[in-house]
Amino acid sequence: MYLGLIVLIPLSAVFLKTAELSWAAFWQTVTTPRVLASYRISFGLSLLAASINGVFGFIVAWVLVRYRFIGKRLVDALVDLPFALPTAVAGIALTAVYAENGWIGQWFKPLGVKIAFTPFGILIALVFIGLPFVVRTVQPVLEDIDRQIEEAATSLGASRWQTIRKVVIPTVRPALLTGTAMAFARAVGEYGSVVFIAGNMPMRTEITPLLIITKLEQFDYTGATALAMVMLIASFILLLFINLLQSWSAR
Amino acid sequence: MPNFISRLSHVPAHQVTVTEPPAVRRLLIFTALLFLGLTLFVPLAAVFWEALRKGLDAYGAALVEPQALAAIRLTLLTAAIAVPCNLVFGVIAAWAIAKFEFRGKNLLITLIDLPFAVSPVVSGLIYVLVFGAQGWLGPWLVAHDIKIVFAVPGIVLATIFVTFPFVARELIPLMQAQGTEEEEAAIVLGANGWQTFWRVTLPNIKWALLYGVILCNARAMGEFGAVSVVSGHIRGKTNTMPLHVEILYNEYNFVAAFAVASLLALLALVTLAAKNLVEWRAQSAQAAFRQELDDTEGLT
Questions:
Q1: What is the pLDDT along chain B (300 residues), one digit of tens a residue?
Q2: Which of B28, B164, B224 sits opposite A87 (nearest CB)?
Q3: Distance between CA atoms of residues B134 and A90, nearest Å
Q4: Residue of A69, A75, A78, A81 for testing the chain B interface, max B β-carbons within 10 Å
Q5: Contact A89/B at CB under 8 A
Q6: Cβ contact (<8 Å) for A83 and B246?
Q7: Is A250 an interface residue toward B (CB < 8 Å)?
Q8: How buried is A119 (Cβ within 10 angstroms: 0-12 exposed, 13-18 middle, 19+ buried)?
Q9: Which residues does A17 contact at the CB level (< 8 Å), separation at least 6?
Q10: Which of residues 193-222 of A touch B (CB under 8 A)?
């Protein structure tokens, strides 16, 4: 009942509002060049960010599970920071650090690389918010791996690299994929941390959620809803995909 | 030399090493820390650095300014409504899903997950569509002079939407794992439904519940996208802390923006600390429980 009130009724509003449009009008709204460019930015950069998180998230999880170093517990706790830190705070902090006069941005300026207010900046924000998904799904699986299997592989003459490639990676692959897919899903819809660092230039650094807000501010409710519909469908498909991955990894 | 030998004797001769050479290990630790440093630690430090850039006085002044205080009050109010709502709902939903069989159960689980997958902007938009001036209930609301969207109730509703999976998600797997045996035993022994809940179910789930509430609260206070769509950005009235940060930042009032942001960052750090404490307590509680089990098994 509560769920119905809070979730179902508002969600069905999106479908009904979209239904006010004819199919052709809907299609036209969601495929204008500016909208298409925003899909490319949102989905393309999210995919790239999720892949980066897949690689580095795995390394972070591996280091946290297998090695000992000073401050490990603190680092382990701080991995969840992107879950706990409000996205607006993350957005202005990343912008401050990666702007041309920021702590990190100033080192890239002499190289002619601008980070904040370019797609590169969006990428960094998306990496930030997606990281804990990968680390936190891979970590428990790595902890559960039976070290004896690795020992067996090694005593049978496998090199360390072969052991990792043939024993460790296949075991964590489902979890790694699930985490990466979750990071991707989160990145596609992300708004707060991106708007500050993106610069929000139409066609270049404008993400789809921002375009929805822009349309709302112009009182173009149908246009905003049509775009929301596209994003909702994308989320449904991703959710379905993630559930499939999870049942695969449960096997 | 004797020391060296005794240390060697601890290592069984047949043991094979299953770790990487020290150089590789150091390289990996360095890579992981560098990556985390660039993406997490440096930006976190930057929040406090920027906030305190003009000294403590400017920092304090930015926080006690009336609009900032109003934003803090609204954020606290929103969390004070949203968190208890989702606490009650989360327990009920998890209870229903874990302890009973009914049709549409999988659909219910998917629906609970949905707010995690939907873009916060879309979450806000759906409330505008229902309650906005052009929305379904819009004309009726206008006729009765009730404001939901671009007012406090809309902010609370949107916050409830984006935060409601947290408690339920934490409880469902735990309650499913615990099964219904203990409750059944309590009822057989003559406890009524309430007593069973208070004395049996609640103590079993308290750590997961607390964990869910902590995460739910952090998100409720920090939500930006969804709230931004429904708030209307009226200063001093419908501005939550994250929205206030945005306004100050866009006005190039960086010290004030980062000062308010630093409060939210502190909240995040407290959340992480509390979360780790709860995890730690839950683990030791579990260990104690296992110990107890082993002891009783030893007796029989």
A1: 444 444 444 444 445 566 778 888 888 988 899 889 888 899 999 999 988 888 888 888 888 888 889 899 999 999 999 999 999 988 888 888 887 777 777 777 777 878 888 888 988 888 888 887 776 777 777 777 777 778 888 899 899 988 888 888 888 888 888 877 888 888 888 888 788 888 888 888 888 899 889 989 999 999 998 898 888 766 667 888 999 999 999 888 888 999 999 999 999 999 999 988 888 888 887 777 777 777 766 555
A2: B224
A3: 34
A4: A81
A5: yes
A6: no
A7: no
A8: middle
A9: A221, A222, A225, B129
A10: 196, 208-210, 212-213, 216, 221
Q: Which token pair is B229?
A: 């769509």
Radius of gyration for chain B, computed over Cα atoms and rounded to the nearest angstrom: 26
Enumerate domains of chain A plus CATH numbers.
Answer: 31-250 (1.10.3720.10)
Asked if residues B168 and B112 have their Cβ atoms less than 8 Å apart, the reply is yes
- Nearest-Cα residue of chain A relative to residue B36: A79
Nearest to B224 among A66, A88, A163 (CB): A88
Tokens of A111: 């190289």
